[in-house]
Specification:
It contains four helices and four strands; from the N terminus they run αβββαβαα. Helix 1 (about 10-25) runs parallel beside helix 4 (about 95-100). The protein has one domain (about 5-100): Trna Endonuclease, Chain: A, domain 1 (3-Layer(aba) Sandwich), CATH 3.40.1350. It is an alpha+beta fold.
């Protein structure tokens, strides 16, 4: 079992997008966010039963004010938004939530 602190945000994203490939869920990630609005979630997912957005953080990472604001705005209009961390991948939470929209 891996330590959650050893899993970077980049490797977390790679694991999640690989899981999406296996489950047949479409996903989007802005390749270079420097010219985009600050705070937009790292990953957006679309399955036949739903749409959701997730911010990815290392185990000890913190949301920026812009990320928290996007989270508030998205949830206010009914879009599923949350933060996933390495512990969520290892616990099975990520896969469960992806399967819900599959």
């Amino acid at each position: 079992m891996h330590s959650t602190t050893a899993i970077t945000e980049r490797s977390l994203q790679a694991s999640i997008t690989e899981l999406c490939q296996l489950l047949g869920i479409a996903w989007y990630h802005t390749y270079d966010s420097r010219r985009s609005r600050r705070g937009w979630p790292d990953l957006v997912f679309c399955g036949s039963r739903g749409f959701m957005t997730r911010e990815l953080k290392a185990e000890t990472g913190h949301l920026t004010d812009a990320q928290a604001e996007w989270g508030r705005m998205l949830t206010a209009v009914g879009v599923s938004w949350d933060v996933w961390r390495p512990a969520d991948l290892l616990s099975g939470r990520v896969e469960r939530e992806l399967r819900e929209i599959r």
